[in-house]
Amino acid sequence: MIDDAEVLAFIARTEASYPPDANTASAAENRAYYDAMCARFRAPRPDGMIVTDRLVGDVPCRFYGSETRVSVLYLHGGGFVVGGLDSHDDVCAEIADAVGLQVVSVDYRLAPEHLWPAQILDVEAVWRALDRPAVVVGDSAGGMLAAALCLSQKDKRQPLGQVLIYPGLGGGGNALSYQENAEAPLLRTSDVLAYQRLLYGGALVTDPLARPLSAPDLSGLAPAFIVTADVDPLRDDGKAYAERLSAARVSASWRNEPQLPHGYLRARTTSDRARRSFHAIIAAISGFAVSGETRNVTL
């Protein structure tokens, strides 16, 4: 139940450009709706922000700020079907400005033109090409890719930390949030399933990288900060993953945001709840960067 006036206004403003049926439209139509919505919400970059586009591991990326000893690797959301360098441009610019670190945003390939595992292969290629430590951050589909990157690098070079923002991690089934929030604003359970069909081409995919909650062993992964929206089918994925990481002796914290729906990062300038959550995300990124550098120096 949402009764926060600021959040309700955000939902109405979003749906004015991105109606509920956009999630089940064709990929081209969905992208047109999504791009229009993102443009409506896009905030100006902080003054003086240096931004450049270039290939990293043959994958298009956007760099925010001058090079720093530690980077932030950002993986955008969009159900693996929509989104790109422009959709989260303002978020990435604000993170770079707030934490004082260079942010690298990855323009991974999208479905249905490119089925899984094209997306994680692109992210891995960028990770291998980066020549410095980094905190990996992702929202929604990008949150799953951030978790998958850590899993793919198990027993290899791990990120300094993983910040997962309302991630989809392969849960569902009997999880309460998929039932309780089946008709939630901005993302319904049916939308989640529709995106999965496009990503996997209708095939049954059991790859743990595609469903991190199914991974048999989470030990040795990067410490995690997981934040979820309470009014979101994906809410319990984040909770369950934090619990599994903790059980594997990985430092993990979970923060759930009451009354906020999926995609609330775009409400950070108009909603006090979303603003406070964004500040917590910034703090987590900074904390992982500082503690990670300390660990590296100690080692």
UniProtKB/TrEMBL annotation:
One of its GO terms (molecular function) is hydrolase activity. The keyword Hydrolase applies. InterPro entries: AB_hydrolase_3, AB_hydrolase_fold, GDXG_lipolytic_enzyme. Keywords: Hydrolase. SUPFAM superfamilies: alpha/beta-Hydrolases. Residues 72-265 form the Alpha/beta hydrolase fold-3 domain. This is Alpha/beta hydrolase.
